[in-house]
Every structure is written in C-alpha cells, then in structure tokens.
Design a protein that fits this description.
Elements (H helix, E strand, L loop, with lengths): L1 E3 L15 E3 L2 E2 L9 H9 L12 E2 L1 H5 L9 E3 L10 H13 L4 E5 L3 H10 L7 E6 L5 H7 L6 H13 L3 E6 L5 H11 L6 E4 L5 H4 L5 H13 L2 H11 L5 E3 L1 H7 L12
Parallel strand pairs: 2-5, 5-6, 6-7, 7-8, 8-9, 9-10
Antiparallel strand pairs: 1-2, 3-4
C-alpha cells in the first residue's frame, strides 16, 4: 500500500504531485461516485465486496512499518481519505513518514475535527507538510449527488482557512471539476487562503468508473461531459491562465497545449 512511482512512465495523475503514494486503509465512507479506488478494488479486482467499501478498514502493518526517505514529495493518502474512524492510524503513519525527513502532501476531502487534530499534532513539522483539500464544487446539490457522504463545501473551506491560519502550506484540488461554470468564481473565493496552488482537472474515465444506473445519473454525466469539452476547457484556461496559483492537471494540459510534467513529483 506504499507505492513508489517510477520516472519511466508518462507523468499523469498523482505522479504530477508525488514520487510515492502511501495508504493505510481500504474502503472509504464518503461514497464518491467517480472514485477510482472503489472502481479498482470493487469492480476491477473484486477484492472488496461492494457493500463493504463504505467501511474503512485499517491495515496495521502499513501503519507500523518503518518508512524510508523518498527522493521527493510523498502523497498521503491516495486510495482512501482521512476520516474520524481512521484518524488515529493516519496520524501514527504520518508521524513515521515525517520523522524519516520526507516532504508530505496530505490530500483530503477534509473533516474539520480531523484537520484541527492534524494541525495540532503535526505543528512542529509545518515545513515538511502541504495540505491539499479536494474542493470540487460550491453547489451543495451537486456535491451531495457526486460525493454523498463527504463534508460539504462550507466545512471544506473552513478546513482550508484553519490550516492557513495555523501557518501550514495550503493548496486545493478541483479534480474532478463538478461545476465547471462556477470554477473561476470558486477559485477566486478560495485564493485568499491558498499559499501554494490550486489544481484543476477533468473527471476521467467516466464510462468505466461511473455506474450509469438511473436517469438522474445519465443527466449528471451529460452535464459533466458538457462542462469539460475542449471548448469549455479553453474558455476556463483563458479566464484563469494569468492567476499564478492555478495549475492544470494533465487532462487539461493536453487539451490547451501545455507541456506535460518532465518528472514525477514536481507539483508545478
């Protein structure tokens, strides 16, 4: 569950951000309909029954084993989230990764109580740690549909404000963009609490990962696809390209003609 990323493959996905991904759990209670980890473990590999995905199971072996110093930024987690039920395990693992001297990117759809605890416990490691909160839309109806059990926009924004006020490096991931028409306005609302970056990216592999099991889902998929056409992405790029904090995932880079990352973990 700790996966080092080779530099030989195209620089895509989490490789743009980190040289290694570390996880300590299987399953996630947030229930995001586009989740790649759920698709991989439930649908593709069949190692977790669909009904058990919502229960977050901690792998104590991953938590307790020693961690090396990686040759670049490490991402934690990438295949689950940090939630109240696994917070203690996540904290223990984070402390091990940081104690080895690593720079750590913490990515989460954040719960305020969890972020307050992380900030308190990891205060001495501020210079090694970068928070990246996934904030995919402001519209609560859209969030509730796609991420039904994750914190709402107000709580995620409160987490961003809190970590920023505590002196941590802060960033945001808007991947996938669930409400493209509102992305620019949301970016400008969040920028005062971001001192690193805000990443924008498409919803990838929709036909494979998202179960189109209702008319409402069919309509939502169509709305997402209409919002990430090449024309819409070019419009968004023109609107935000002069904002230095805004960075573009490879799914947008290849549409608007930007060069891909040259090596893993640059986070630029």
């Amino acid at each position: 569950m700790g996966k080092e990323v080779s530099g030989k493959k195209p620089i895509r996905g989490t490789r743009e951000w980190a040289v290694a991904e570390i996880n300590c759990c299987r399953g996630c209670p947030h229930g995001c309909r586009y989740c790649y980890a759920r698709y991989d473990l439930v649908e593709r590999q069949g190692v977790i029954p669909a009904g058990q995905w919502f229960h977050c199971r901690v792998n104590e072996e991953e938590v307790e084993k020693s961690r090396p110093l990686y040759p670049g930024q490490v991402m934690f987690p990438s295949a689950h989230d940090i939630v109240p039920d696994n917070l203690e395990a996540c904290l223990r693992l984070l402390k091990k990764i940081l104690a080895a001297g690593n720079r750590v990117l913490v990515v989460s759809k954040p719960h305020l109580a969890c972020i307050q605890r992380l900030c308190a416990e990891l205060a001495d490691s501020r210079k090694q740690l970068l928070f990246r909160f996934t904030i995919t839309a402001r519209n609560e109806k859209i969030l509730t549909f796609w991420e039904p059990y994750a914190p709402g926009y107000a709580e995620r924004k409160a987490c961003l404000e809190y970590a920023f006020a505590q002196g941590f490096s802060t960033s945001v991931s808007v991947e996938p963009m669930l409400d493209t028409a509102d992305v620019a306005a949301m970016v400008h609302e969040l920028l005062p609490f971001i001192n690193h970056s805000i990443w924008l990216g498409k919803m990838n592999k929709i036909a494979r990962r998202v179960a189109c099991d209702s008319k409402e889902m069919q309509q939502e998929i169509a709305r997402i696809e209409q919002g990430q056409t090449d024309g819409q992405l070019h419009r968004l790029y023109r609107e935000l390209r002069a904002t230095p904090e805004v960075r573009w995932k490879e799914s947008i880079k290849e549409v608007v003609g930007l060069k891909p990352a040259s090596e893993p973990g640059l986070d630029v």
